[in-house]
Amino acid sequence: MLFSSNRLFSSIALCLGLFLGGLTSAQAQSNVTLTGKINNPVSDSVLLELYTVPASYSGESHTVALSKNGEFTITAPVKEPLLGELVHGSESVILFLQPGDNLDVRANANDFLNTVKMKGEGFEENSYLLEFELKFEEEEDYQVLPDNIHKREKEFLLFLEERRQDQRKFLEKFLKEHQTSEAFKNYAKAQIEFSYANDRLTYVDIRKRVGDLPPKLSPDYYDFLNQVDLNMPGAVRNQAYLDFLNNYFQFKALQAKPANLERDYYPTLYAMAKQELKGTARDMMMARILSQAFRFGYVPDTDAMYLDFQKEAKDANFISYIQDQYKQFRRVGLGSTAPAFTLLSAEGDSVSLSSFKNKMVYLGFWRTHCGICTVDQQAYKYFAEQLAEKDVVLLQVSVGEDLNTWKKNVAQKKYPGIHLYAPDLSAKILKDYDVKSFPAYFLIAPDGTLISTNARRPGHAEGAREIAAAIDQYHKSAKK
């Protein structure tokens, strides 16, 4: 399961301070100023996004109103070279911004990318990025999709190498004709090398996704990974580099085949990134993995990684980012104790989770007017029969239905398991289990910890088989 490579037009928005009035020389050197004009505007504003914390995928944005004739001015703090994105409507242009840049950007909203004109301090670097994109990211001959992915290994590698050589020559010609900073040179080189590496690494996965048969690879196909400089200078802010790292560590984690992939996946990624990366790249990738683990990982292991990160990380931006992520997303999850509850049953008595101590519990949440929920309820009897030998308690919580109607339906349809009632979406149990959509299913171990926060649905073709396998895996691990 590898991430696909994307152009860097993601909607990451980070706050920019707008300074009005005069600036001292020192202040000007720690800021960038963007002026410009949008002809035939489609909205009354422009947005500048700064990617101040690479791979963070969160933040704030700053919007500036256009004047009556479409002009704008933005002054923003920039203390080191980074990427920004100037956005108008649904169109945008990527900018490489350095302290002291004073860049004028003009475009026609009817054909934004093809009409962008720039001048001023920072013009050379950003003209290169624009020309590079138009040549290598807009022309189909240089794209993996839709046609080149169908090539066999030898022809595909030839395509990648020819593209890389064309890109290198394009950069070399530019550098001979323009004076640029070392930071930009490194950034541009990283764009080329990691685009190549990422497209080669994801070749098999993308072919599968477009419906091709998996290619027969040479035994040494992945040997190129040993030659990739994971700590290449200037790569940290490059999207191609981030795409590659995501796919590289996922590839290695799957190759490592941990005993319990669901539980050990994020710790495996984290340990690899910690060992193989250095400096800012190391902090960036460990933070990226932790952010995902907060949402989807095994809670005890995630907490352990979080404590380790506090000791290991050096970059204050990533430390602050992860602390905020931990506060925001630390939740009920794999390995945490299932929240206690007591609810009314269809039989008219009160039922508590604690009543099933030392029992495996399959807990579901559903609503009457949910189409998938209806499918699951229709499959529930067969699901229960398949799990009969596993001694699992089936608890189903109906949310928001009229109480009397619900009791009548449960009695008439004779659904298996124990049916419980939550009056509406404000019910405490929904908040405790962080249920935001329906249906939702959880698997709770006999010791009260959560084995799965996204258990297979009863209506899924492999639902009962996968739940049975998870139960067997738990009992197998408990005996060790």
Overall description:
The chain has 480 residues and is of the alpha+beta class. It has 4 domains: 25-120, Carboxypeptidase-like, regulatory domain (Immunoglobulin-like), CATH 2.60.40; 139-256, no CATH class; 261-330, no CATH class; 342-479, Glutaredoxin. 43% of the residues lie in helices and 18% in strands. It is built from 15 helices and 15 strands. The protein has helices at residues 25-29, 112-115, 123-137, 153-177, 182-201, 203-209, 239-256, 261-276, 279-296, 299-312, 316-329, 371-386, 403-413, 428-432, 463-479; strands at 31-39, 45-50, 62-65, 71-77, 82-88, 91-97, 102-108, 117-121, 342-345, 350-352, 360-366, 392-399, 418-422, 440-444, 450-452. The strands form 3 sheets. It has a 7-stranded mixed beta sheet with strand order 10-9-13-12-11-14-15, with helices on one face. Strands 4-1-7-8 form a 4-stranded mixed beta sheet. Helix 13 links the parallel strand 12 and strand 13. Helix 4 (153-177) packs antiparallel against helix 5 (182-201) and helix 5 (182-201) runs parallel beside helix 7. Residues 1-23 have low confidence and may be disordered.
Ends distance: 30 Å
CATH-level-2 architecture of the largest domain = 3-Layer(aba) Sandwich
Q: Give the oligomer, counting copies of the same chain as homo and different chains as hetero.
A: single chain
**Count of all domains:** 4
Task: Give the structure's gist in a few sentences.
The chain is of the alpha+beta class and 480 residues long. The protein contains 15 helices and 15 strands. The strands form 3 sheets. The chain has a 7-stranded mixed sheet, covered by helices on one side. Strands 4-1-7-8 form a 4-stranded mixed sheet. A 4-stranded antiparallel sheet has the order 3-2-5-6.
